[in-house]
Each structure stands twice: as structure tokens, then as C-alpha cells.
Amino acid sequence: MGRVVSLGSINVDHVVHATDAEITSFAECYDWFPEQGHTVRVDTLPGGFSVDADETRHGGKGANQAVAAARAGADATMLGKVGADHDDYDVLPTLAAAGVDAAHVGTADAPTGSAYVFVEAGGDNRIVVHPGANGTVDDAYVAAVRAVVRDADCLLLQNEIPVEPIASLLTDLADDPDRPTVVLDPAPPEGVDPLLACDAVDVLTPNEHEYAAIDLDDYDGALVRKRGGDTLIVETPDGRFTVDPPAVEPVDTTGAGDALNGFLAARLAAGASLREAVETAVVAGSMATRESGARNGVPTLDAVRAFQAGER
Asked: Can you quote a single GO CC term (predicted)?
């Protein structure tokens, strides 16, 4: 069992099953409203922004990826911050119940981060993120949990917490010969450039929107291009290969990329090659779309193995 640490966001998701007319209305009212399949971060929601959520779930890319790593068989730990209201949503007990160690999660003087997930009829989604407590992750917190990070086999990072303390952490790790393998999900892509310039980032996992938005001039690690239901492209300093995702009937694509990242980290932490890790992770990400919710459909490693063997 490999050790995976996810340092990132912890959210409460407000899910809206939206009609085409509702999506059009939001897009006309707010020029920052995300395009299909995209995530945008809004530090202050406008006063007129109001939605009636169909359901409330647990989310955040960091937490989702930690849960996926645990289901992939890793010894998973979550690092990040929640608000004093976290008990109202059972945020930490839910992580623990999923097999994730949340003992080092901090509490901030801010509400727990939130996300508004707009799910369209075809299963595609648009996500609006409000950072809340996630925005309070600072140098002091990262320094306090550095030993936890250092003991991991794989470190999962996203871009839903402040960049500066993470860039400092990666600078420190770059010269450590025993550091964890670092997997970075550049989502959302805005402001992620300082992390791409860090030598400690080993694997970068953008989707097509993020791939088009980021500057890769200073990045020389492995690139895993997530392309939805299309062929996934992997580029490394030693060559290039592709992996085709299995055909499934998607219900909700929310969290599919998180499932892929969590499995990728878990398999790398267990000592798998990049190709084997990607092949397993792609199946997990596809399987996760068959149920509604960012975590509900994330399979176990045994289920992925059975799927790969043709037991669907």
C-alpha cells in the first residue's frame, strides 16, 4: 500500500441539475460563468447570484482525489483547511468514513469552501468555486504539515488553494532526494504558472481546456492530457503513448478527472509504471461517470480490475 497525500481544497458542493434555458440565463447574466466542462473560481459571489440546489454533497478537488486514492488502495491523507461550520456538513467524518486520514486538516476563521456544480442533461458540468477556508492555506500551515508531505510516496496537488505556499513547498522538495512523486492537476488553470516552473512537479494532468490555457515552456516533466471520452495522450521526456478510455454511458462527469488523478497517484505510490498507472486511472475515471456525484461513482481498485477483465 503506497502513501498518498492530497494537499488541496475541501468543499461543500451545491448541485444544480440545470436545463439549457437556465444555463443560457446564467451565462447571459454573468460573463465569468464557466463554459461546458470548465471550472471558474470566484473570490466574491455577486449579490444577485442565487441558486436553488437540488442536493448538497461533499467535494473539492483535493478531497475528491484523496477519496479516490483511498478507493484505489492507497494509505490516503488529506491536508487543507475547513471552516468552523464543517460540523454542520459532516465534512471530516465523511472523509474518515471513506478511508482518508483527516487528522491534519486545519480549521480557519472562514466558511468551508463551496462549489456550485451545474449538471446538464447530457451529464456534462460547469463548476463555480468559492474558496472560503481553502483560501486561508498559508506558509505557516504548509510548514506545520511538511513532515506529513515528506513521508508520502506521492503528493497530489490542484489549484484551488493559494499558489504561493505550495510553490515554496515545491522549491524545498526539489532538492530532496527522497521526496514524494508530485502529481499536479492544474485546475483551474488561472495563476498556476508558478507551480509549473517548479522542478519538483513530476506529472501534470490538464484537461483540454487547461492544456490550452497554461504555458508549458518551463515544464519538462510527464504530461498526461485528459480528453474526456477521447484518447488520452501521455508525453514524457522519453517518448509518447496514448490510452483509450473504455466506452460507458455517462450520467455525470463531475469528479471524473479527480477519480483519474487519485488512482494515478495511488498506482504510482504503489510502484507501478506511468503507463500502467495511467491505464488503470483512465478506467477508474470513466467508471466514475456512471453515477451522479463527484464521489459516488468512484470505483474500488478491485472493481477496476474486474472491469478491465471484462466483468462489466
From this structure: cytosol
**Of the listed 75, 153, 185, 258, which one is catalytic?**
258
Instruction: Indicate the SS3 state at residue 232.
Output: strand
Q: Which residues pair with 219 in a beta bridge?
A: none
Cβ neighbourhood burial of 2 (10 Å; 0-12, 13-18, 19+):
buried
Tell me the pLDDT of the chain averaged across its residues: 93
First and final C-alpha spacing in the chain? 26
> Catalytic residue at 138?
no
Question: Is residue 282's pLDDT more than 70?
Answer: yes
pLDDT at 311: 61
Which sequence spans correspond to the domains of the chain?
3-11+60-115+135-308
Phi, psi of 121 (to 5 degrees): -60, -35
pLDDT tens figures, 125-163:
898 988 999 999 999 999 999 999 999 999 999 999 999
Segment 284-294 shows an average pLDDT of 88
Under CATH, domain 3-11+60-115+135-308 is a member of which superfamily?
Ribokinase (3.40.1190.20)
- From the centroid of its chain, how far is CA 49? 25
**Cell 478527472 belongs to which residue?**
257
